[in-house]
Amino acid sequence: MAAALENELEVDNEDYYSLLNVRREATQEELKSSYRRLCMLYHPDKHRDPELKRQAEQLFNYVHQAYEVLSDPQSRAIYDIFGKKGLEVEGWEVVERKRTPAEIREEYERLQRERDERRLQQRTNPKGTISVGIDVTDLFDRYEEDFEDVPGGGFPHIEINRMHISQSIESQLLFLKLCLCLSGTPNHFRYCCPLWIFVNTEFGAGDIRGPLFGMKVFRNVTARCFVTAQWGLQFSSRGVRPSATTMMARHLDQNTMGYLQWRWGSQSAMTTSIVRDTKTSHFTLTLQLGVPHSYLMMSYQYKFQDEDQTKVKGSIKTGFFGTVVEYGAERKISPHSVLAATVSIGVPQGVSLKIRLNRASQTYLFPIHLTDQILPSAVFYATVGPLAIYLAVQKLIIMPYVRAQKEQELEKQKEDSASEIARRKQEAEASVLLMQESVKRIIDAEESKMGLIILNAWYGKFVSDNSQKRERAKVIDVTVPLQCLVKDSKLILTEASKAGLPGFYDPCVGEEKSLKLLYQFRGAMHQVLSGDTEPLKIPKQTHRINSET
């Protein structure tokens, strides 16, 4: 089974809940009631025509299969997690019949963790960082008269004052994790020891400070507390410099961590921190006492609950070195890219702008030093400049690119699912034919009591322009299937996608769909437009159309 789980499960358009038109939390009674009704509709013995009888038998078996899965607690738990494909995976003998749905979910989570670990062991994970320091102080702090007689002196001087490039490759062989870093960043070897102790050994070379050897130990003390200890030896022309660091961390509550760290070496210090991380915010308070730097820092980050994962942050740090105020923003610009900008204003550091781009596992850093002093013009351009550039790039480059990517993915999805949609369309048409007699009886019964009559129903993507041809190409007529679901002058649809309902299929794969209904109740006209996955219950007074309209 573990081997079978290595492959990603495909998305299954055949939703058993939608087919039976029941909630995902439906009881056994609700399942049985819906199953009996569909059995009466699709029972092969009710049809004499050989072709209709064959189609009815196929749909009847499909409904029976859906009911068998959802009525069995164990099979239903597997289906809720894996979908239909999960029921076809061999090796589910690990799921004993006596296990509850909760235990099955725990078993799945354990198997998925093992799968992720195996993938991590088998793959190579390259990481890299490119940092380019730029000095543009000549833009804001210069004497114009000193450059009047110099050729080209009218243009400010911009220089790249530093550059750092590092690349690492991680791979795991058996229980040994090797990280090779080309930039002088320490190499890492991780070995998992008994008693939940992790040991890292570090080797570094190529740095101007000389070779480095170190070791780091991690240990869980309790379920809410862990400690780390690190020792290092830095070899240089001046001799060997030893260093040591110890840190203890504890969960103060569900969202808050407390840290206490002691560092001994060239920059000895004692640091304590409180970090609170929630769904909408991140707060950090840090106090450090040490040589040569002691400081107090407080930072706050607000997380917007939007599609782009936008974050706004600000911090203040004060100590023996002066005071620094930072503010900035971070936003996801593509599925694999995050762009961030931070303005730093400090005494005596001046004003600087830091731009960071994370693209997959690569990081690009551009620290730009604007002035050595705090000048209003530098602060203004550091704040407004990146925002204006981002908006321009977002509108002219990023949005067209993302839109083109989505269109390509949509076209590919349509091509891959063309045969499946054709099959679903054929099943839906057959289902509509089988519903005709039942629908006539339902309409006669509803008309006799001035009940619910579905006059017109369309499902798919509706367009705003007046092109009827284009609109009809995007929607399908579902009047008969919905009338067939009417019971006691009521129509109730659950929150599942309506593409799985009997007589329905998806006319526009990957696009946003809606259901448009025109119905009559007690002699009055009603109209409603409902989203694809929105629950719907009719009739309602709010759907009524005024006689003048």
TrEMBL record:
<dbReference type="InterPro" id="IPR036869">
    <property type="entry name" value="J_dom_sf"/>
</dbReference>
<comment type="similarity">
    <text>Belongs to the DNAJC11 family.</text>
</comment>
<dbReference type="InterPro" id="IPR055225">
    <property type="entry name" value="DNAJC11-like_beta-barrel"/>
</dbReference>
<dbReference type="GO" id="GO:0005741">
    <property type="term" value="C:mitochondrial outer membrane"/>
</dbReference>
<dbReference type="InterPro" id="IPR052243">
    <property type="entry name" value="Mito_inner_membrane_organizer"/>
</dbReference>
<dbReference type="Pfam" id="PF22774">
    <property type="entry name" value="DNAJC11_beta-barrel"/>
</dbReference>
<keyword id="KW-0496">Mitochondrion</keyword>
<dbReference type="GO" id="GO:0042407">
    <property type="term" value="P:cristae formation"/>
</dbReference>
<comment type="function">
    <text>Required for mitochondrial inner membrane organization. Seems to function through its association with the MICOS complex and the mitochondrial outer membrane sorting assembly machinery (SAM) complex.</text>
</comment>
<dbReference type="InterPro" id="IPR001623">
    <property type="entry name" value="DnaJ_domain"/>
</dbReference>
<keyword id="KW-1000">Mitochondrion outer membrane</keyword>
<keyword id="KW-0007">Acetylation</keyword>
<keyword id="KW-0143">Chaperone</keyword>
<keyword id="KW-0472">Membrane</keyword>
<keyword id="KW-0597">Phosphoprotein</keyword>
<dbReference type="Pfam" id="PF00226">
    <property type="entry name" value="DnaJ"/>
</dbReference>
<dbReference type="InterPro" id="IPR024586">
    <property type="entry name" value="DnaJ-like_C11_C"/>
</dbReference>
<dbReference type="InterPro" id="IPR018253">
    <property type="entry name" value="DnaJ_domain_CS"/>
</dbReference>
<dbReference type="Pfam" id="PF11875">
    <property type="entry name" value="DnaJ-like_C11_C"/>
</dbReference>
<keyword id="KW-0175">Coiled coil</keyword>
<feature type="domain" description="J">
    <location>
        <begin position="15"/>
        <end position="83"/>
    </location>
</feature>
<protein>
    <recommendedName>
        <fullName>DnaJ homolog subfamily C member 11</fullName>
    </recommendedName>
</protein>
